[in-house]
Amino acid sequence: MWNPVEIYIAFVEPQFSGNIGFLARTMANFGFKKLILVNPNEIDKDAYRFAKHAGDIIENAIIMSNFEELRDFLDYAVATSGVDTVSPKKFKRIAITPREFASKLPQLSGRVGIIFGRENYGLYNEEIGKCDLLIRIPTSEEYPIMNVTHAAAIVLYEIFLQDFEPRERDLAESFELELLNHRFSEILDLINFPKHKGKNTEVMLRRILGRATLSKWEYHSMMGLLKRISYALKQKNNKGENNK
Hints:
The chain is of the alpha/beta class. It has two domains: 5-162, Alpha/beta knot (3-Layer(aba) Sandwich); 174-242. Helices cover 50% and strands 12% of the residues. It has helices at 17-29, 45-51, 55-59, 67-73, 98-104, 125-129, 148-162, 174-190, 195-212, 216-242; strands spanning 5-12, 35-38, 62-64, 76-80, 110-116, 133-135. A six-stranded parallel β-sheet has the order 3-2-1-5-4-6, with helices on both faces. The radius of gyration is 28 Å and the shape is elongated. The termini are far apart.
């Protein structure tokens, strides 16, 4: 994804096999393939069951015996934690947000590891101290600690956005919006909408269309509907005139 950066997602001493599966699935959602498991418990069928179609990420995971092995493998280690500080004296716990980290990622090179800790405790202070950076997701102070796979989803999403190109929409042009506005005005006349309210209503409808940023398809669909309404109202009005 980021060349020449190789991004690895590391899970330290996972307790529950299901969380390995959930993490693999989350990785696949955002295009990440390289998983490192540090001293995991037995990887049983729950891991593959919760991974759904991301079982290959588990099958190809790198298994390491301890944190030191992980740190030696990585060129740049990024710790994650639900606890941080602003105190300069406790610099190990000064964190940045996932978005801030994502913006720095293109400046890095080599093996970059984003490290998630144990479900019950997270990463130890000495482990965080061996990392180059700490990420914390801003959360409510009343309950700041997130589920590890939920936290992973937010971090990986922010990285994914840096390389994401939104699809271009074929938007309706200004003259087409004018035709819609004209059609709305015509309908207001056909229903004998009060003249003193008509101008403000036309402005309101214009503003709604302006905020909507209609696609070509939406424009044609709406225009077709309004034409039918206009035609039906004209037919009804003409029938009423003839019956007089």
